[in-house]
Structures are given as structure tokens and as C-alpha cells.
Design brief:
Helices cover 0% and strands 43% of the residues. A hairpin with a 5-residue loop joins strand 8 and strand 9. By secondary structure, it is mainly beta.
Length: 313
């Protein structure tokens, strides 16, 4: 399908997103305390509502894009709180991840159709890779996507047990898999890239995150199976921080954690003993330039914004 043959269904009448502030207590100790500052959305099909929100992306202007999976669309939430729906079941099938480049091109990975699609900023289809009509399959159950500073796309190609990399024009670049990467036989469900070109992969069913060198060789692993701080249970979405740390959606433990570059845990939300602000199967994490952490709280059908309180525990 070529450019101009299909397009997003832009709902031009934006809707102001209702936002509900919440407060959670912080406790003094050795790690940074986070609190839930805001919830965005609720279960439903209207603009500003979600049905199993998955991947998140913040563009250069601070707009939040959400892969609203079971509503078969992408939602864009502006910094003013206006909401636009992009897609629909005739165009997108269970989108799992979305990224937006500096030219406002939109890239969507669809698990339900095993394909990657690129759209222009006005919603026209630029290209499709993979999918039911492809002569050569490209993906099998892709789960996550991220982009580096060179606009290269990294896709967690889950059932193919690899992370596969493409250019912004759709040209295959490389695959990360096999014994040298430590991902042999892995079924990755999260991927992120830091400013040094290191690739972070959620080795989900081994309950850890693997960091790869830019050449694809194994560098180090974060976490092991368990429910204590620093342990993981089926981790999924990742976000590389500017300080060398990595945020992890610790899905099976219903929390998010941040590992410093040396592997030490420096944030955990909800922290042990916290009653309020619980998460249910968080699957994606995104960061903005102001220190906000956005979490796709999938089974609560909402997005949560976390902020640091300045306290420690």
C-alpha cells in the first residue's frame, strides 16, 4: 500500500482531557520517592478513554501518544490536554507501540497484523512493512518499538526472539539475537536505546533486562526473578534515562523500577508498603524533559504521571 492510499481518521474536534490529581505519601529512606501526580483517562471508547493502553511516546513538543490497543487506534494528547483519535479498526489492528520522529512522522507497530506502518504528520500512509499481504513476513507478534537519535527504529519482534532494527525509510539494518547478545531463544517484549547507542531489551520470560553494546554483544543484565526491590516478574516496557539509568515496567509485580547504570535500584513505584496509587499490569514507560514519568497502567485503562517528591526511602 503506497502513500496516500489510506489515512488516519483524524477526529478534528478535540476533547479536553479530564485529569485527576492524586496524592500518595512518601517515606524517608535510601531511594527516591515517587508520587502519583495525575491520572489520564479511564475505560471506554470515547476520546480520552482507553481499552488496554500499551506503548507510550512523547514527541519533541511534549505531546503524548498512546497505543490504545483494543480500541485499534493511536491517541494523541497535547500539552494543553486536547485529545485526537488516529486510526480505527479498518486501519490499525491491536497497535502495541508508537513513536514519532522530529519531522512528525508516526510509526506504529501492530501486533494484530504483524506489521510496521509509517504515516505522515497529516495521517497519510507512507509505507507498510510486513502484514498479512506481505510476500515475505517481517515480524511475528511484535510488542514494542523505540527510536534512537538517528531515527532508526528498534522493534521487539517477540515470537522471532529478536530485536530488529530498520531505518526511517524502511530499510532493514540489523538484528539483535543469538548467544553473543544473551538473547538466544528469548521472547523480548520491551526495547529502548540510550544516548550512547546501547540497546536495552526486556528478556521478559527470563525476568530480567539485558543491556547490549552498540555492536549487539551482551553488556550486562539487570534484575532476576522475584518480588523484592531490584527483582522482576515478566518485565516489559523500557525507557532509557539521560543519566544512564533505565526505567522498567515490572509488569508481573504491578510496579515500575529504575535501575542505575551500575544495576542498583534508585526508584520503585509503588514502593513497599504503599497502599494508595496501585498499578495493574503496567506495560510501558515514557519520560519527558521535566522529570515526569508516564506509565501505561494497562488493566486500569489509564495513563499515570509520576513525579519525584525530593524525599528518599
Amino acid at each position: 500500500m503506497g502513500e496516500g492510499e489510506s489515512r488516519f481518521h483524524y477526529l478534528e474536534i478535540g476533547r479536553r482531557m479530564p485529569r485527576q490529581a492524586e496524592e500518595t505519601p512518601g517515606a524517608p529512606a535510601a531511594r527516591q520517592v515517587l508520587r502519583m501526580a495525575e491520572t489520564i483517562g479511564a475505560f471506554g471508547r470515547d476520546l480520552g478513554e482507553f481499552n488496554l493502553p500499551m506503548g507510550l511516546w512523547l514527541d519533541a513538543e511534549g505531546n503524548l501518544f498512546v497505543a490504545d490497543s483494543l480500541n485499534h487506534r493511536i491517541q494523541k494528547i497535547t500539552t494543553d490536554g486536547d485529545v485526537y483519535g488516529l486510526g480505527g479498526p479498518d486501519l490499525l489492528v491491536n497497535p502495541q507501540g508508537v513513536v514519532v520522529d522530529s519531522s512528525r512522522f508516526i510509526y506504529v507497530i501492530e501486533q494484530g497484523a504483524d506489521r510496521l506502518r509509517k504515516f505522515s504528520k497529516t495521517g497519510y500512509l507512507v509505507f507498510t512493512l510486513g502484514g498479512p499481504s506481505a510476500r515475505v513476513p517481517r515480524f511475528s507478534c511484535p510488542t514494542a518499538i523505540c527510536m534512537d537519535s538517528y531515527h532508526q527504529l528498534y522493534i521487539a519482534d517477540t515470537e522471532n526472539s529478536r530485536v530488529t532494527c530498520y531505518s526511517a525509510t524502511g530499510q532493514w539494518q540489523t538484528d539483535y539475537h543469538g548467544p553473543a547478545s544473551g538473547l538466544d531463544g528469548s521472547r523480548p517484549q520491551g526495547v529502548a536505546v540510550d544516548g550512547e547507542g546501547r540497546v536495552y531489551v526486556s528478556d521478559t520470560m527470563r525476568h530480567r533486562v539485558v543491556r547490549l553494546k552498540p555492536d549487539g554483544d551482551f553488556d550486562r543484565a539487570f534484575g532476576r526473578r522475584g518480588s523484592e526491590v531490584g527483582e522482576l516478574e515478566e518485565p516489559r516496557g523500557l525507557a532509557a534515562d539521560s543519566d544512564g539509568g533505565v526505567w522498567v515496567a515490572d509488569t508481573g509485580n504491578n510496579r515500575v523500577q529504575k535501575f542505575a547504570a551500575d544495576g542498583q535500584v534508585v526508584c520503585c513505584y509503588p514502593q513497599p508498603g504503599l497502599v494508595d496509587g496501585q498499578l495493574s499490569a503496567p506495560v510501558s514507560v515514557a519520560l519527558d524533559g521535566q522529570g515526569n514519568i508516564y506509565v501505561s497502567d494497562s488493566l486500569n485503562h489509564r495513563i499515570v504521571r509520576l513525579v519525584a517528591t525530593g524525599d528518599t526511602w
